UniProtKB/TrEMBL annotation:
It is found in: Cell membrane. It comes from the Eukaryota. Pfam families: Kazal_2 (PF07648), OATP (PF03137). This is Solute carrier organic anion transporter family member. GO terms for biological process: monoatomic ion transport; sodium-independent organic anion transport.
Amino acid sequence: MRSETDLNDDFQKPDDSLLDFLKMFPRMFVHLLLSPLFLMLVLAQCCFSSVIAGLATFLNKFLERQYSASLAYSSLLVGAVNLPAVAVGMLMGGVIMKRAGLSLKTIPRFSVAMLTTSTLLCVPLFFMGCPTQKVSEVNHFQNAQYGSLALCYSNCSCPAGAFNPVCGSDGVEYISPCHAGCTNFTKDPNNTHRVQLYTSCRCISGGQSARPAPCPNNCPHLLLPVILVISLASLIACLTHNPMYMMVLRCVSSEEKSFAIGIQFLLMRVLAWLPAPALFGTAIDTSCIWWKRVCGRKFSCGYYDNNILRNRYLGLQVGYKVMGILLLMMLGWKAKRTQEYSLEKRPDGPL
């Protein structure tokens, strides 16, 4: 039978091992950060994780603003097309890793080839879009009858925070029926609480009427091609997910593997998943050309410059991918030199 002293020693061992780990933590952390292979690989993964963070956070909004898709339909397309493509890419990447037997030397080459292809597929997306529709007093400031648009509704006392877009018969969108100078309306015969048409609109030339809805843009037909291109680019990029994860395990010693994985995910959260959504959000906000206001303060964006929005949102993704590819190219060069040095090294003494 074990003595009480032995039992007390067993209870003390977990505390001692935890204390030893806490003492070793700074040294192991610095040692991993000073490893060129590990550091470049994790930084490359942070670049690609930033792209994923931008897509996961703002892709629905991008599709909604660019192609006049509803938020529900955008979410349906992302869930039905893009996410399965990502899952298939990760699965195929694992199969390729196993069948091809990718080594520490060939993984960076494979990743650079796949990610370069994925980046090139994003180039057509810059041209698959339409400019912002004409909006009165936002990007369209001329009226054929009054010259200045503000004169046609100067007697209407329109509230500064009014935002109820209507589409005029002249093809111009107005912030509200008041800003279109409308003085009458026709109710929907099937629903008396709904307006069917605004009439007697002084600011609208021609028919002088407006529909109670924003004017559609000319790009809804591009929605499906765009989501297919984005999904294909995501599938090809995700082929590198498992190989790069396995490379992390191969570039550190066996006693540091579990610690290296923890540091890897820590750095990815701090360097990618925290700042990337804020950076993408800033890029989107700076493309706003008219803000909704509540109590005189900016509340949310009413209208974006679609060309600037598309170029900044996609350009930021391409920029992250290019930085990641450059890091992987440096990583491949370093891995090649490291492997050649290891092959040349011989143990001392007789064989």
